[in-house]
Amino acid sequence: MKQNNDIPIRNIYYMLSYAYQTLNLSEYKQMGVENFENVKDLYAEILSIGIPAIIKGGLSKEYKTVEETSNVIKGKIDITSTIKKNAVVNKKVAIAYDELSEDILLNQIIKATLIYLSRSKKLSQEKRRLFYGFLPYFSEVSEIELDLNLWKNVRYNRQNIRYQFIVDVCRFLYEQLIFDESTDSQKMKEIQDEQSLSSLYEKFIYAFFKRETEYKVSRPQIQWNVDDEFTEALPIMQTDLVLQKDNKTLIVDAKFYTKNMVARFDGGTAKQKSSNLYQIFTYINNWKKGPDETLAGMLLYAKTTAVDQPNHNYSIKGNQIFVVSLDLQQDFSDIKKNLLEYANHFLE
Description:
alpha+beta, Trna Endonuclease, Chain: A, domain 1, 3 domains, six-stranded mixed beta sheet, three-stranded antiparallel beta sheet
């Protein structure tokens, strides 16, 4: 079956625009979306504009502890290390001090991405040379090997939030390139395609309702409704999106898969994915309802080209659960219309 990576480039651009308001800045508005044949070229163009902006603003720095032996005392003297290294013989002592450094994870990810892109045959020679030309600005940054787990350790604050869009696009582009180069089976490609756009889909859905509606929009963690206040080892219930108006609350969980429904055997009846239903049902049952609050849940799938698509309404223990599919291949004006209709159906 065709996969969700068939989403038109223009719609991916719109999703990025909602998920990251940075894309609305003047530097990016000159991009002609029609010029891109695939999503890799779109991501590469964004980086070719965004990384110079990061450089121009100055690379972010953080305090890092430096340990060395020196005849100049600064910071703290490490007596034990001084004795072990026999540094006193050379009239030096082991010291440790904090120093502002560009050699931090955010810069390391960008540098590693630049190195990878400058060597990738999936990009044009012009783009490879351009990315290679940015590397001298990262001379004080260590070289690390790119790995998707790196992004799990990224943390943002007020000082480095300007990095978020570029660092995320680095991941999107790296995923696309590495999966294209390493995929050796259709099944593995389906899994990889799913991973490469699911994060963007979640960010887009949240940002869309934040910008396009007057609902109260949030993504809170739901606390377990335990009887004895013992919650150790219970998993975190992190919502993708919660929409509220007056006394109505809609908990939305965004889902991006290559297959939205499953059959237990070939030719069998397609069913809802049980884990997804269990998840939204658990959210509803642990939500602390107000005295007059009406609560519902929604599984918002990105539609695939399979015949069977989720489009169901359930009433379970007095609460409604909506299961709907959003067609990301349609014109973006229709995407907006569908999203508003899904929410308004319950909240209005």
